[in-house]
Amino acid sequence: MRIIIARHGDPDYEHDSLTAKGDVEAKYLAKELSKLKVKKIYSSPLGRAKRTASFTADKLKMDLDVRSWLQEFPGKCEKPNRQGIVEYCWDWLPADWTAEPLFYDKDKWVDAPAFEGTNIREEWDKVRSGMDELLAENGYVRDGLVYRAERPNDDTILIFCHLGVEAVMVGYMLGISPMVLWHGFVPAPSSVTEIVTEERVEGIANFRTKYYGSTFHLYKNGEDPSFAARFCELYTNYDERH
């Protein structure tokens, strides 16, 4: 099975939709994804993801299967040195998050002291349960750290969602702490991640990532990726996000 995860296009967060550039990105994405033989299209319930998905769904003449747990990951915490300010987990300063050994552990990252009293474990559990259900529906049942291929197939499914929840999903499938993925990978708006099953022993499958956060559809059409998800490349680049 092939799983293609697409982040929404350049966001208009105020209206939970896309900017004009985001629409362009989503159209170029649909141009490529509509060439595939797709079995199912899943989407976050949020407007920016559903609008991005709609361009592909319209071309394929398919409906969206909206899953509530595909919304942007709502786990929140208090960052170091930001007393009283509740924030998401994925833009900590490098010196802060790398100082916590638990953040590198695929199971114990949620046990870090910084997450005590937060909703992060609860929301992590929702994503894991949702992913298990989705994969089981498509023939792959989690069994420890591998998957039983109960109905092995070469279907393609599309998932339209968000930067934060994508890292949680991929981390769960591959056995990687989402803190590592959140801070080490940059899925730009409308970017694509492709994950495929490998069944090297009959009946037992695992997942491998072919690419993460690719913007091939934008480069192919001469469109620069949006900067959202990135921080300044050089500290002296004062026109970029610090």
Question: How would you describe this protein?
Answer:
The model has no long low-confidence stretch (mean pLDDT 95). With 242 residues, this protein is an alpha/beta fold. A hairpin with a 2-residue loop joins strand 11 (192-201) and strand 12 (204-214). It has helices spanning 20-33, 47-60, 94-97, 120-137, 163-174, 178-184, 216-220; strands spanning 2-7, 11-12, 17-18, 40-43, 65-66, 77-78, 86-87, 140-143, 146-149, 156-161, 192-201, 204-214. It starts with a strand and ends in a 22-residue tail after the last helix. It is globular. The protein is 31% helix and 23% strand. The longest helix has 18 residues, at 120-137. It is built from seven helices and twelve strands. The relative contact order is 0.20. The strands form three sheets. Strands 5-4-10-1-11-12-9-8 form an eight-stranded mixed beta sheet, with helices on both faces. The protein has a two-stranded antiparallel sheet with strand order 2-3. Helix 5 crosses helix 6.
Topology:
Blueprint: E1 2-7, E2 11-12, E3 17-18, H1 20-33, E4 40-43, H2 47-60, E5 65-66, E6 77-78, E7 86-87, H3 94-97, H4 120-137, E8 140-143, E9 146-149, E10 156-161, H5 163-174, H6 178-184, E11 192-201, E12 204-214, H7 216-220
Parallel strand pairs: 1-10, 4-5, 4-10
Antiparallel strand pairs: 1-11, 2-3, 6-7, 8-9, 9-12, 11-12
Helix pairs in contact: 1-2, 4-5, 5-6
